[in-house]
Sequence to fold (358 residues):
Amino acid sequence: MSFTIAALFLSLAQNPDPAALKQLVEGHLASSGVPGAVVAFVVDGKPGAVHAFGLADLASGRKMTPQTRFQVGSVTKPVTTALLARLQAKGVLSLDDPLSKHVDVPATLASITLRELAQHRSGLPREAINRRDLPDSPSVMIPMSNEELLEGLAKTPRSGEVVEASYSNLGFAVLGLVASEAADGGYERLVAQHVLQPLGMSASGVYVDEATPDGLASCYWPEDEEPIARAPWRFGSACAFSGLVSTAGDLARFLAAQLDREDTFLSNALREELRRPTQAPDPQSGLAPATGWFVANLPGGLQAIAHGGEVDGHSSMIAFFPKLNTGIVILCNRGGDSAEMLSRNVMGLALQAWMQRQ
Fold:
């Protein structure tokens, strides 16, 4: 992230230019090979305009719409920590609980806290040691159940006690298991009950071992020279790291809940707790980990709080600025860094518009 992100919100949130946005995004899609994208904004703490571009499916010519659904990958992680925060507020669990309070794990993992898992400071590896991917795929995961997750944990080494952040999908899969055990329900049902329904995210859900959700954009791998529609990821019950299906408009509602001080979804104290950095920014990326988020400090005292996601065939990015009371969602139906690259172009347009007003 950089100063251009601040410019994005200062310009587009205050003075949207749909025509310029359309020209830029459609030009990017044509040059990059990304079939389609949806961009949504949060303005003044409320969900704003949703813009759809390109195609959701190349073979049929199905157009992208604001209602098109995506597998949002690791954007699921801040949704998982929002679930945990809600359960903490209800007294079901605490982020400071040790893992052993909720699940049966080896003694070497027993003292890990839920907070350490959510901040990527648990010392667990990035992936489950018994994770399997589809043959001949970039990294498309074969569904994993919570039972298989526990089997792998029983054999999983830990790199040490509390460590500096090291990104772990495994850690978030474990958090989903913890929530299921503590609240006596499947992760997909708990997310719906405590996050999606309260926020009116009616087009979103976690689909475990089910058919492809209606309205899902086709998935295109960046490794394919010629675009071929690929099957979406299938998730078993161990899916709290990447299993959410959503729309740009629904994710704008989720971002708005991080900003609206009058909203009862999360208390101000819990909002601050989740987005408080846990260590200094990484020298290369400029990002500091928080609890389910990453934070970038920008000139002028601004903070950008964000998370990206990718499931080989889809790419996503969400970000918000508490000081500006604004946010952005970008979803693409090609994997890799598609959403990030598109966001850079949108930010360039916004920077130019913002500088012209100075």
Remarks:
- The radius of gyration is 19 Å.
- The CA atoms of residues 146 and 247 lie 27 Å apart.
